[in-house]
Design a protein that fits this description.
Largest sheet: 7 strands, antiparallel
Radius of gyration: 19 Å
Strand content: 25-35%
Distance between the termini: 76 Å
Number of strands: 7
Number of helices: 5
Order of helices and strands: HEHEEEEHEEHH
Length: 188
Amino acid sequence: MKLRKRSSVKSRKQMRHTIRRLLMSSVQQELNIHAPAVECFSQWVRFEEFPRFMKHVKSIRKTENKQWRWVVDGPMGAPIEWEAVMEGRPEEQIIAWHTIEPEENKENEKKAINTIANRGAVRFEALSPNLTHVTVTLQYDPPAGVVGETFGHIFSNPEHMVKDCLHSFKNLMEEIASSNQRSAKITG
């Protein structure tokens, strides 16, 4: 009997997870950056540097192998934290992530309660040696209650937020590419 009950609990969790994924809202933004795809990808996987181009992100730090703790500005200046698994596939120039469900987070379950469920991917496609097409896809589950208020504060307009972050990343990468070209001319 216990075995049957345990199996049913697991299948209910799987069903809730599947339903959540189906109900998630989605945003996609894309643009071209005048910089090599390899350099764009390399910069993006420096997750700790996200605050350079994501104004709502206070910090991101590695907690385990592929897990990263995000700290973002919440309502009334209170920081909100969650963990996400972030994976890069350099051969495909793709970076993907997903937040960790509270039951998956063994390190600090109390903080996981504030998880803003989201997942997504960033793809870097070389159009030419110095031109990269970047596509960001974000799926999110707007929660209710206090966490919903936080979500509203951080992601009040998710499409606009992704667009702003992507444009800031474009500016950063084009500054780096321009600086590299100037350095190459001086040394060359």
